[in-house]
Amino acid sequence: MGDSMFRFNKEQKIFEVGGIRIGGQPGELPTVMIGSIFYHKHKILKDEKTGDFDRKKAEELLAKEAEISEKTGNPRIVDVCCGWPQAFQKLIDFVAENIDGPFSIDGATADVRIAGAKYVGEVGLSNRVVYNSITPHINEDEVKAIKQAKIKSALLLTLNTKNPTLIGRLQVVDELLTIAQRASIEKPLIDTCVLDIPDPGPVSKAIYLVKEKYGLPSGAGIHNAVDMWRKKRKMDPANYMLASTVANVISITSGANFLLYGPIENAPTAYFCCALADAYIAYSTKQEFGTKMLTNNHPIYKIFR
Q1: pLDDT at residue 4, as a whole number
Q2: How many structural domains comprise the chain?
Q3: Domain contains 49
Q4: Rounded to 5, what percent of the chain is helix, strand, coil?
Q5: Is 246's pLDDT higher than 50?
Q6: Of 118, 151, 213, 272, whose CA is between 20 and 30 Å from 184?
Q7: Spatial distance between the Cα atoms of 229 and 227, rounded to a whole number of angstroms
């Protein structure tokens, strides 16, 4: 256990992926924001099977997020979603050309993810890619594809179907790290995996415990829990955004280094809330531990302006 809030005993690793830094002790670096584009039923998609989409709208979404990221100081990884192997190339090309930094390849099935991995390997984009994701159930073909593509970073999803609890999540981390090693992943990012509506609690605590035990960058797609909840009952849009905010911020106070905040359209609210939480925590760690912010681009220098 950590000897105090906002500080881990274990040395905290920081990985550089596609020009951004992720990880570290609370207060050192801003939370990395991962928003999804081209997700299932995304309005900008004209045809999910062919990957045809409204380029102008997609450009606007990416530009808007870039502007918000610049304003708060929170770096971004663009999560490129895809449901069909033949569509991935088009979507990856577009994002790689329209942003400077890293992006994740998030295929709905192993076949799609393998197609994405092969493609980024062929065109030399591997150093900008985070593979989304490696689970304990991954098959050998997929492991091989990641290795051959020379992808060096991946989200490791602590999906424990037999024991979907706080402890269950921690039980699969060693197994995931062994798989990641076989795939030649050097920069593993641990995603503590939302499965159920009240999960932001255990998921956040799991982030804390992963950082305390392994010192690895950790985070989650906390908003998934709120999305599941919204699908079950009518939720006022303002309450939906507030619920997402509470979920995100609880994970940041537990030490999250990255957040999959959902649809890229949600960037304005997500970045603002997370940047504010980052600033509060940084101010606290600086006072108590003399923690140094490792970038002049930290939200603490930007958000209160």
Answers
A1: 83
A2: 1
A3: yes
A4: 50, 20, 35
A5: yes
A6: 213
A7: 5
Phi, psi of 76, rounded to the nearest 5 degrees: -130, 150
Containing domain of residue 247, as a range?
30-290
- The predicted pLDDT at position 3 comes to 63
Q: Are 222 and 194 in contact (CB under 8 A)?
A: yes
**Residue 176 is assigned to a structural domain of this protein:** yes
Please, are residues 68 and 60 in contact by the beta-carbon 8 Å criterion?
no
CB 260 within 8 A of CB 220: yes
Main-chain phi, psi angles of 33, to 5 degrees: -100, 130
Please give the Cα distance from 261 to 255 (Å, whole number). 16
- Per-residue pLDDT at 219 exceeds 50: yes
Asked, for residue 19, whether it belongs to a domain, the answer is no
**Per-residue pLDDT tens digits for 57-83:** 999 999 999 999 999 999 999 999 999
pTM recorded for the entire structure: 0.97
β-pair type (76-82, 129-134): unpaired
The mean predicted confidence, pLDDT, of the chain is 97
The answer to whether residue 218 sits within a structural domain is yes
Q: Which residues contact 179 (CB under 8 A, 6 or more apart)?
A: 134, 136, 138, 143, 156
Average pLDDT over residues 42-61: 98
User: How far is Cα 301 from Cα 282, in angstroms, rounded to an integer?
Assistant: 10
CATH code of the domain covering residue 252: 3.20.20.20
Q: Which two tokens stand for residue 290?
A: 């003399």
